[in-house]
């Protein structure tokens, strides 16, 4: 079973609460917490759920995640980890993994020249953002909505649009995504999208589905790997 569609062992809010309790009982400001793998073992959870919990605590101002270093306790929390911070990143990805590969397969059968133009515009926008060393989020959205629009199914197109709206409103997603968007990774990201577009353009439904699945799996792995010490 693909790791990207396995169910989380525990809800991230519960894990965030337990990490907060651990900090209060054992750690001082400036202390380094155990890594995500160790926290997952300690709380009988999994790394995706722990990652979401840590991001939640970072947004709340309780911890700081330092790239290639680890998780550190901050002096004063700026918020509450229980407040609504949007949908968890891996929950968003699970939904996209269910929907978007099938949408890509349909686009390989139904996309028009106008739909291809939208997909190409999305990739060009990603290249522009990459050249400016900015996140490729806007070009990414244009590309994926272009595929959805080319699926020939208005309801699926609305679902994909809703998923992206939800994703871009989620503070948890935006913070977790920021860890993974290095310049090197954005260049690799564009290649992923070109592979999807090429399969759709060749009208190869199964290849389009496989390319989209691979792209979303790369997204999953990037979110999971980013920021690890």
Q: Would you kindly provide a brief summary of this structure?
A:
This protein is mainly alpha-helical and 229 residues long.
Q: Which keywords apply here?
A:
229 residues, two-stranded antiparallel ribbon, 68% helix, disordered N terminus
Largest sheet: 2 strands, antiparallel
How many helices in DSSP terms?
10
**Residues in helices, as a percent range:** 55-70%
Which shape, going by the Cα principal axes?
Answer: elongated
Give an overview in words:
The protein has helices spanning 12-26, 36-42, 47-59, 89-110, 113-131, 137-149, 154-169, 171-180, 183-201, 205-225; strands spanning 63-66, 70-73. Mean pLDDT is 86; it is low at 1-10. The protein has 229 residues and is mostly helical. Strand 1 (63-66) and strand 2 (70-73) form a beta hairpin. It is built from 10 helices and 2 strands. It has a two-stranded antiparallel ribbon with strand order 1-2.
């Amino acid at each position: 079973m693909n790791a990207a569609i396995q169910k989380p062992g525990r809800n991230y809010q519960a894990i965030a609460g337990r990490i907060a309790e651990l900090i209060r009982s054992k750690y001082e400001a400036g202390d380094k917490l155990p890594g995500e793998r160790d926290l997952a073992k300690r709380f009988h959870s999994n790394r995706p759920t722990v990652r979401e919990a840590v991001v939640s605590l970072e947004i709340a101002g309780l911890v700081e995640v330092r790239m290639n270093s680890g998780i550190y306790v901050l002096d004063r929390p700026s918020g509450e980890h229980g407040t609504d911070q949007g949908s968890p990143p891996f929950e968003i990805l699970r939904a996209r993994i269910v929907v978007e590969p099938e949408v890509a397969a349909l686009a390989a059968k139904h996309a028009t020249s106008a739909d291809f133009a939208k997909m190409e515009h999305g990739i060009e926008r990603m290249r522009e953002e990459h050249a400016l060393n900015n996140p490729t989020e806007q070009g990414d959205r244009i590309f994926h909505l272009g595929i959805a629009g080319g699926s020939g199914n208005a309801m699926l197109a609305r679902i994909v649009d809703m998923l992206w709206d939800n994703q871009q409103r989620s503070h948890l997603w935006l913070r977790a995504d920021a860890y993974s968007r290095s310049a090197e990774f954005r260049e690799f990201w564009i290649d992923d999208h070109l592979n999807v577009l090429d399969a759709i353009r060749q009208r190869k439904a199964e290849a389009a589905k496989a390319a989209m699945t691979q792209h979303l799996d790369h997204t999953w792995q990037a979110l999971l790997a980013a920021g690890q010490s």
